Amino acid sequence: MIVAARAPQGPGRRTAERTQMPGFVLEPLGGAAHGFHGSRVLIKASGDDTAGQLTVLESTYPPGLSVHVHVHDGEDEMFYVLAGELAGTCGDETWTARPGSFVFVPRDTPHSLSVTSAGPATALVITGPPRLDQQIVARAEPAPEFP
User: Could you report the per-residue pLDDT of 58-74, keeping only the tens digit for each?
Assistant: First the structure.
């Protein structure tokens, strides 16, 4: 078992409540598969899996995909690029990310991204607190196939 501490709640609380949750291992391409705006998203760890701390997604984006400027209210978003190339904006800054690159987008910050590689781009996407996973599941899009 993996043990996660929860922050004390309420005025004057000094002890942390402990919540036990099982650890797990997913094989390559493991996790619930969903479609999201043309991308294939594998939910590696949901907010439910992490006691409401974060979400970990493996997102594969098709070539030419462009995600318009948007904001995640109250949710940080991070990308660790595994394959392909992404370019985007974070506030007034622009960025390009290749395999091994890490991008941090603070909560409430306008941002965008595009696939600039000839083939699909894949990134490990981490959000916290977890909300994006719930949006993806609620859309109920079938997961597209990529080579």
Answer: 999 999 999 999 999 99
CA distance 112 to 54: 21
Give dist(CA 73, CA 89) in Å, integer: 17
Alpha-carbon distances, residue 108 vs 69, 74, 91, 130 (angstroms): 12, 6, 10, 14
**Within-domain flag for 7:** no
Question: Structural domain of residue 90, as residue ranges?
Answer: 34-139
Separation between Cα atoms, residue 99 and residue 101, nearest integer Å: 6
> The domain that contains 88 carries what CATH number?
2.60.120.10
Closest to 116 (Cα-Cα) out of 144, 78, 88: 88
Please state whether beta strands 102-105 and 76-83 pair in parallel, antiparallel, or not at all (unpaired).
antiparallel
Considering the entire predicted model, what is its pTM?
0.84
Closest by CA to 21, choosing from 5, 42, 43, 44, is 5
Q: Determine contact, residues 90/105, Cβ cutoff 8 Å.
A: yes
Pair 43, 31: CB distance under 8 Å: yes
SS3 of 137, please? Answer: helix
- Which pLDDT band, with edges at 50, 70 and 90, does 146 fall under? confident
Residue at 147 is within a domain: no
